[in-house]
Design a protein that fits this description.
14 helices, mainly alpha, two-stranded antiparallel sheet, 52% helix
């Protein structure tokens, strides 16, 4: 127990230093699932919180009319708004790019894949094919085809599955995927359609069970709709779906639907500090996880009374001392 308390104190010290040093910028761990692949791996989702100080890059030409900046004497930080609910900086920037309809956010993306997705989303949103020129690979042609509603642009693409998927997405008709002969290619075409069009109806066409569950999970997160998670068969994938949606809309009521205790605790621990919810922390089963949750909420609210809910007296004292 003493060792656990010591670990909590060390983590809390890092947490405090992160809050004082500016907006938290999590370590980049974004994984974009390849569209053209049959094999997908489902793992039990257990979120952890990585806390470190960092300076956030502000894109050029973004004015106060599109977003609000908080300037301190330590380092510039961004008021991400609800985009701060996303786990990685690149995902936050994609969110801000859509929110402000500005491709400037895309220019500073760390991942080339994420940068392409960012430009794609803004181009489609603004119906500006000129922005598509910033995109690499086949997504460039797909972007132009969707905006112009001209499926003939897709004919430039060499790989058949990408070409047919492009035509399906540009026309808004996922039945175009039936032109493919391979069941694997058809599945990936349906998945691509679902992702680009945020249309989960196409997921029903996916024959492989694991891929279909993954399609529904991606659709739920993209649409921020936890009800889509109910269509998933595999328990772990369904838990991950609920965890993903709850994280980006900061709704602790979704956590109740998670069957695995560890994942459910992680869900509450993730959502609680985002909205300053003591009630969410109280629903956590693991004592140490609950303690850290109260610490983070106390810092979020700058309210030392939240520390009173911590059972260990030493940790409670440190919590209060950091707020006062």
């Amino acid at each position: 127990m003493k060792l656990k308390i010591l670990v909590l104190i060390i983590i809390f010290g890092i947490l405090i230093s992160g809050c004082l040093g500016g907006k938290e910028e999590p370590k980049q761990t974004t994984t974009i699932k390849p569209v053209i692949t049959k094999t997908t791996t489902t793992v039990k989702v257990v979120t952890t919180t990585t806390i470190r100080t960092a300076t956030t890059t502000i894109p050029a030409n973004i004015t106060a009319t599109t977003t609000t900046f908080i300037i301190s004497n330590v380092s510039p930080t961004i008021d991400w708004g609800n985009c701060d609910y996303y786990a990685t900086v690149d995902l936050k920037r994609i969110c801000m790019a859509e929110k402000t309809a500005s491709a400037e956010w895309c220019k500073i993306m760390k991942s080339l894949n994420n940068k392409d997705i960012c430009y794609y989303k803004v181009a489609i949103q603004k119906k500006d094919s000129g922005i598509c020129e910033n995109i690499s690979g086949t997504l460039n042609y797909e972007c132009k085809a969707v905006i112009s509603r001209d499926t003939s642009i897709c004919d430039i693409i060499n790989k058949s599955v990408d070409r047919v998927a492009c035509a399906a997405i540009a026309s808004g008709n996922y039945n175009t995927c039936n032109n493919l002969t391979s069941s694997i290619d058809k599945d990936n075409c349906y998945i691509a359609f679902s992702v680009r069009r945020t249309n989960y109806d196409a997921c029903e066409k996916v024959r492989d069970d694991e891929s279909r569950d993954s399609c529904y999970s991606d659709a739920a997160v993209n649409r921020k709709d936890s009800s889509i998670c109910e269509k998933i068969s595999d328990r772990d994938t369904k838990d991950g779906c609920y965890l993903g949606v709850s994280g980006i809309i900061a709704d602790s009521s979704i956590c109740e639907k998670i069957s695995d205790t560890t994942n459910r605790d992680s869900c509450y621990s993730d959502v609680a500090p985002k909205v300053g919810s003591q009630d969410a922390c109280s629903k956590i089963s693991d004592r140490d996880e609950k303690t850290m949750c109260y610490m983070k909420v106390a810092l979020k609210l700058k309210d030392a009374s939240v520390c009173d809910k911590i059972l260990d007296e030493t940790t409670k004292s440190i919590c209060k001392g950091s707020i006062s």
